[in-house]
Request: fold
Amino acid sequence: MPLDPKDALRAWFLGPRGENAELLERLVVEALRDHVFWRRNYHPEDGFTIRETDKRQEGYEASVAVLTQELLSLLAELKRDVPFFSGRYKGHMIAEQTIASQIGYFATMLYNPNNIAAEISPITTRLEMEVASDLARMIGYDPARSWGHLTSGGTVANFEALWLARSVRYLPVAAAGAAAEVGLELEVGLPDGSKAPLTELRLWDLLNIPGEASLDLWELLQRSAGVAEARRALASHSLASIGYQEYSRRLALDYGDPLPAGVVLVAATAHYSWEKIVRALGIGSNQLVQVPLDSCFRMDPDALWDCVRELVRHRQPVLACVSVCGTTEESAVDRLDRVIEVRDRAASELGASFHIHSDACYGGYAAAVTRKADGDRRKGDEIRRSTGGAWPDDDWIRAIASLAGADSVSIDPHKMGYVPYSAGAILVRDGRTRLLVAAEPPYLAPADSSQPEVEPFLGRYILEGSKPGAAAAAVWLSHKAIPLDERGYGYLIEKTMAGGRRLHAELGRADLAPFQVVLLPVPDLNIVCYVVRHPSQTTLAALNAFSERVFGELSLARKEGPPDYIVTRTRLQSPMYDGAIGPLLATLGVCSLDEWKASGSEGLVVLRSTVMDPFLDPPGPGPDHVTGYLTALRKACSAALSPPHPSASPPVPRR
Amino acid sequence: MPLDPKDALRAWFLGPRGENAELLERLVVEALRDHVFWRRNYHPEDGFTIRETDKRQEGYEASVAVLTQELLSLLAELKRDVPFFSGRYKGHMIAEQTIASQIGYFATMLYNPNNIAAEISPITTRLEMEVASDLARMIGYDPARSWGHLTSGGTVANFEALWLARSVRYLPVAAAGAAAEVGLELEVGLPDGSKAPLTELRLWDLLNIPGEASLDLWELLQRSAGVAEARRALASHSLASIGYQEYSRRLALDYGDPLPAGVVLVAATAHYSWEKIVRALGIGSNQLVQVPLDSCFRMDPDALWDCVRELVRHRQPVLACVSVCGTTEESAVDRLDRVIEVRDRAASELGASFHIHSDACYGGYAAAVTRKADGDRRKGDEIRRSTGGAWPDDDWIRAIASLAGADSVSIDPHKMGYVPYSAGAILVRDGRTRLLVAAEPPYLAPADSSQPEVEPFLGRYILEGSKPGAAAAAVWLSHKAIPLDERGYGYLIEKTMAGGRRLHAELGRADLAPFQVVLLPVPDLNIVCYVVRHPSQTTLAALNAFSERVFGELSLARKEGPPDYIVTRTRLQSPMYDGAIGPLLATLGVCSLDEWKASGSEGLVVLRSTVMDPFLDPPGPGPDHVTGYLTALRKACSAALSPPHPSASPPVPRR
Reply:
């Protein structure tokens, strides 16, 4: 049977009305009973530990009563939760989940495997490795050379990326120390492609060895000195062992060359968690250098080049450059192809190199749009024929295809993968990287694995320890039911992108007089941001206060009860948004760019709607949620303009 | 109805035979339908997006077929998963989960709230705060002053503990810089209880301010300089901003006093993840100082005192001391009361202070044993009347009660809390600590919360971002159904401890001739470790190889098919176990302590069985799993002694 995604789409989710409830219930009951009979078939001679007479004891019954009652209370409370499933929810990047992931999670949770090690998760560790390969293939990594795994979320994935990047960056310094200690003369590859003896390199050179050359050097050292000896010698020179305090002191001593601290370049739109990450890693938030944006809210590649050149001039090493594929505020997709060009140029013109990480936590799944069923890439025209418009343009396709050129990519199944929390993922292009952070716990010493393709002990290489095999099964089953190409996720994401563009277009056309809608550019993915202004607002502060009131009217926490539509908002601040906000401010006309810059943390509040609903364009058979959205917005603006006297409208009890 | 735990216990789990399948299925279906009708009641006027005719399309049906087929494959594969539910599984610290947690997780997963912020998890963020309060009360923290939250697991909880500890430890240094910058003269509390002006303190003194005094100083600075100014000034002097490289340089310059790097003291039994943690934080694994063990596999308090005194003599600051409550290898419970005494003594005699963290990831829930229904502590005699023996002794009770005196405690609901992965937790005694690591994301700016008791934005204070509200609901519902006292978890854990001691005792009594069973001491909790030796083994290497073969015979991955009982093993290495292993080696008689020390990574392999099954003592109505265990062990030892020729026994297909 052909899997026409147009029709299949309607089988992928429980549905805004629970239309597929019968399907989900059938699968849930099937999985539960299947599990129960597994238990019953395991050594049936063991008999029953809990007998029917036990179930008639007062204490048993009391316990069941307590549990049932408390569950009913929980269910009652959850009715005040956020209706992510509805076309009326146009807030954060969260929606309902695929049935496949729900049932995959539930079925496997009953077994509760722990993917820290295959010994206690023989099946789901393999599924996790398969998921990593699925994602690797989708973004263009070679699954045989790359490596990846699931994390509890994007922050941990990004944390690991930078932790790994630092390990690779500082590796040549440790290798130089180790080689000298064991009396070896080794050569290493330089950014310009030439080779040089380790002993001739200064600290600066060592910190600018390309990642792959660093890993080659590491292998060479192990071949030359023997694995055990190489490990011992490396440990006595590595940052991981020595720690920053002693390391800095030692470098200054050994090289007479106390270079400034290494920096991490991030798009100015980068997620706030990058600040947590550099603080926790001991790098320090001062070393987080924000690269200016262009007017599309993407990292400006020219600004990146200027930045790199300046840093090199000051001999300040760059640990990593973090480019974003799908910013969490505007869903902007950095021109990763041009970021990679900057690194290539830095290598040839400046002799400098750095790790490139793509934070594709939000947008990574959009790569499915570029894939055919056979795994080949779709051409731009093919995709545009299917979307029936000008989207995506060739630049977007180039940016997405360039994920294959990043050294590491983080990508969250629990965002655009439509699976339940918690499932993030990290991929590294060169799988050897993971060995640099390996730890060795005594009670999970690797055993002979009867399945050599299975990672026997994932916990060695990752930050986390115990982790749910159920999450791996959820993602795995979702990828099986909804392929990572034009037949599955590609189609789903095309639809939500189309919905986002439709919302953007209709907001632009809408007559909300006396209110004026001022939009951010057409989104690269599916987050629509805008400001609504009334002529009476003539200052930034007044405009922001108004936007906050509009948000309050369209927020689930609204005092008068839930609104018809739910949106959210964000605050664009200086200096992060200096490069992008000009046109917006010019249209709004409440302040100049300089005044906005001077406003500090005041910034500009924008309303923000993520479209994860695949039924927005064309609208489904029910009421059109774009029309409804505009009506609700107009009402909210009016209410926000002249807030009613508190006593005039008695608070409606919340659902 | 009285909730007699003896009978209630049989309602808490699905049961080894799925005896409570009817109950779980009823609740699962109830929760699912309840959710579906919530959707259907939300704006019924929206009509149906997925119509019955849509479900008759070929593409829809094909998609359902694919999903069903793939689910059936997954279910078939899962039948090779580990039977954690069975009394025959005596391996890692993992068992089946409470029905309450399973249904709590499933019911809430359908809503998929994200506890990063209350805006997208209005109910479950509150539940998470309630869970943190439950746990705080259980261990003796004041829920009004303390703070805590769930994490993806113990490693992240421990990571956060050390991250927070470092922030508190270095705070006075930043405060001194900030106060000088804004021209304030402030006083701060010293370890001996006196006060001194900040300006008179040397770097060493600043790094030895007690945690609470540091936080008081921080508040004083904010009151004196104003919050915004204090924040700005602190940021320009804090490690989090500056990063280690520049920080070390600056301290050496400002104080002319380049102190050695700060160390982290851990029990030698501490989980291997502590090494990952200090590496990632930039502290460096060389700064992880292992405190020797006593013969009960607990941190030796006298050795701790010697260690602290030596470090102080070398003016090497101690960032934190990590004591373990329930080691993952032996379930040893450190004498935390005596660890705290060491710190008190260090404060008064040496003028030194440090953070005390209890890694109670595994054993923390045992504190429920010490609680009555009204929350008061049970006396030793009361508990022993209920356990009918000498356990627990007063030292154990004092150690558990001392959790209240630790600065932070990590405690995993997904271990002895019997809830599904992933649910760890971190608690800090002084809730102000969290503000030191706060970050500020633009799109989740705190709104007016209509429920002031709810943390509006948890993501500010924690390492992770997106996190499952379902995990919070699972733990919450489990605590409701099974209270954290003698009626609930206390009873459950008493039973598993009794089972552990019974297994230990019967292993000691068992006649496995010609094999000799040599046991580790009676466990503090419920992990039993031992070595089985045959007279023909006269070297450490031979003994270890034999133990590995016995493990192989009792491992699910056994080539001939699954064994009747499943155990695991671990490797006790030098120098970590130098203090504890003497008696064991003496009884084994294959090598001296010095020979063992010289064996390096060879160490001693011990078999290891965690008893999480509450039906082992007294045995349930089925076959006795202690007797069965001993029979299986004897068989495994015989097989391991003379491994059959590979071709002699054709491999049996695995279940």
